[in-house]
# Entry
Amino acid sequence: MNLHTGAMGHIILGALEPHRMSTEQRPTSEAIAAVVASHQIWLKGRPEGRQANLGRKNLDQANLAGLVLNRAVFVGASLAKAQLARAGLVEADLFAANLAGADLTGANLTKAVLRGVSLRGAILNHANLTDADCRGGVMLNTDGATQIGRNQTDITDCLAEYATATRAQMSGVDLGGSSLIGANLEGVVLFGANLTGSDLSYANLRGADLSESRLGKTQFVGADLAHANLKNAACTEVNLQGAILQDAKMEGVDVSKCNLSQAPSRLSPAAFPDGIRTILEAHEQWLGSNGSSGRQAMLNGADLSYYDLSRRNLSGGSFSGAKLVGAGLHGSQLTLANLTGCNLLGADLSEAILVGASLANANLFRANLAGAVAGAITIRDPSGKPTGRVLATDLSGANLTQANLGGFDLGSCRTDEAAGR
# Structure
């Protein structure tokens, strides 16, 4: 029998009754596979199956990606740098586990026990932590001489962009330096948590409890904090530009140490890095010379977040997979531009020309498309003759959740499987 003790000092009996592996600390891949297979049978309610118990095992760098491990026991296990992308961990018990550097991209941790864990440097992008318990906790052996776990759960320097953690219990956790851009944290409890240096831009924090939290240089650009509780939060250089603060509780908050301006600041063209400026200037020359001089802009995968690209001619440019969070593209010409898979979270595309542009699988969550022009264009060869090809603005698979579509003609776009319409 083991004893769990939480951050408040209470004791939780944790008799580990499910089937254990042998006492070896580094199980073989074959042994792990056997336990997982038996667990699948147990999940189906068949008597020959047994619940997986990998507690206290050394599973560092183990490949468990995509496996269904719902309700499995990993108490005190070491899963540092383990591959757990898309794993099913619903109601799994990971009390005091070491998940530092683990890849949990898209994992389902709904109602999982994550008390006293280390997720330092882990990847949780698009993971689901709905109703998960992430409070601190330690485990004592029956002799009371040794313990594992943490009084403060460590989620520092973590990537959890677009993760979902609605109603998760995160009181007192350390999220310092983590990125939760676009995360859904509605109703999360972050009482007394450390969010120093964290980025929660455009996150949904409606009704969240951030009272008594530490918010040093925390980014809440464009975040939705309606009805949130920030009472007595310790604020230093907190960025709340463009944040929604309707009915938020701000008693005891020193707002003089917060940036409350209505719109996020953007990087002016004069401040662009030399490499970016050169590419953009060469692209404009390429357009003006009909391709005889200059060079087409190839900024695939580039990070142009918060760049002011308003009223620029970027037609025909390639920005596939680029990061344009909060970017200013008001009135820009983007005819036939390749923006496939771009992250345009909160970007301003109002009055932009998007005729024939590809925004397939782009993230346009809370983007402003008001008055933007979409439609089809006939492709012509270098001599100006029609090729017979016609390209419409492509929004197939794009995330349009909470986007401002006022005056935008979706009917002129390809929108197969577009989300949030």
In short: The chain has a mean pLDDT of 91.
